[in-house]
Amino acid sequence: MWVLGIDTSCDDTGVGLVRDGKVVVNLVASQVRLHEAFGGVVPELASREHLKALPLLVERALAEAGLTPKGLDLVAATRGPGLIGALLVGYTFAKGMAFALDRPFYAVHHLEGHIAAAWPEGLTPPFLALVASGGHTHLYEVLDLGRYRLLGATRDDAAGEAFDKVARLLGLGFPGGPEVERLAEEAEEAVPFPVPLRGQEGYDFSFSGLKTKALHLVEKGLPKAALAKGFQEAAIAHLAEVVLKAARDTGHRVLLVAGGVAANRALQERFKEAGLEVHFPPRGLSQDNGAMIALAAWRRHQRGFPPSPLSLGATAYWPLEEA
Ligand code: KG4
Ligand code: ZN
Predict the structure, then answer these.
(1) Which one, of 174, 175, 156, 183, lies nearest residue 266 by Cα?
(2) What is the mean pLDDT of the chain?
(3) Which tens digit of pLDDT belongs to each residue from 229-239?
(4) Which of 72, 117, 136, 271 is the most exposed, fewest CB within 10 Å of its CB?
(5) How far is residue 22 CA from its own chain's centroid?
(6) What pLDDT, on the 0 to 100 scale, is given for residue 131?
(7) Closest approach atom of ligand 1 to CA 263
(8) DSSP state string for 245-289
């Protein structure tokens, strides 16, 4: 069974093809260059770029898999959350394809997609899932596919957003995560940063203090590599401390770490040492992509979830607990 997955929730056009639960094609057209000059994503420009890139990318994905559109069995797209104009492009396109081909359509929650990317076949819930990306730092208890309990979330910046902001302070490029990681690897010593929210009651996250601290240290003229390393260490320590506390309190021994930040090697090392069974997305599937949306739809279909009505609209705001 072939599933086409489309993600246009932000500034990447993602198209993926999954066959029987395995990723066969995963194409992502990045808009980084387009938005660079503006210092952030310009929603209207993102939508227009998706409109141009999406049909070409779908055509290329099908060609790479040696498929014609009629060879598809399911069509899926991100319904939300995200930039509404950007979402509408992929979502409407996918519904159009499903209608024209007379195939079932699955409306997928973006975070369920991120979780599906890290979810190995055969692993049954319950387990914990941390989604750390440019827009989210959310810790869930995954009770089952489609049943999520939010344990904690960021009170301010998302983890990836903090990496991006610190990268900018250090004069590095966008996206900042990989750049900060590269620079941190050059440092012998780390400038110490305080780990946020130590001793808190719940499982929330906070990254804005780290960003402010980085700003002060940059102004003091401290060496950039040591600063990048210090920031990264504190950000990772914070994520790990909150998640491990939740694991202790809830008794879960299995954890998925998903989203763009999950690609960070130092973070992966830290979580692997935690004494839990930890799963990360394979290479290329941690950041926004279409294959993860196809994987989530495949899981839903396998479990007998009904397809989504074509009349349903995209939605900018959508808690995962309501997916
Ligand atoms: O999941 P994603 O592609 O998009 C969102 O849904 O937001 O995540 C992108 C975020 C960016 O903030 C980027 O800086 C961060 O993930 N990121 C990283 C790394 N690679 C990407 N952060 C830390 N270390 C990395 N290696
Ligand atoms: Zn994402």
Answers:
(1) 183
(2) 97
(3) 999 999 999 99
(4) 72
(5) 19
(6) 98
(7) 26
(8) HHHHHH---EEEEESGGGG-HHHHHHHHTTSSEEE-PPTTSSSS-
Ligand 1 pocket (Cβ < 6 Å) reads 10, 133-135, 160-161, 163-164, 175-178, 181, 259-261, 263-264, 287-288
The overall pTM is greater than 0.85: yes
Query: Which pLDDT score is estimated for 38?
Result: 87
Which residue owns the Cα nearest ligand 1 atom 7?
Answer: 134
**Residue ranges with CB less than 5 Å from ion ligand 2:** 133, 288
Please tell me whether residue 5 adopts helix, strand or coil conformation: strand
Task: Return the H-helix or E-strand segment holding 228.
Answer: helix 224-250
**9 Cα to the center of ligand 2, angstroms:** 8
Question: Would you give the distance in Å from CA 285 to the centre of its chain?
Answer: 8
Whether residue 260 contacts residue 242, with contact meaning beta carbons closer than 8 Å, is answered with no
Helix (H, G, I), strand (E, B) or coil at 122: coil
Choose among 133, 115, 270, 147: nearest CA to 207: 133
Of 137, 117, 115, 136, give the one whose Cα is nearest residue 126: 115
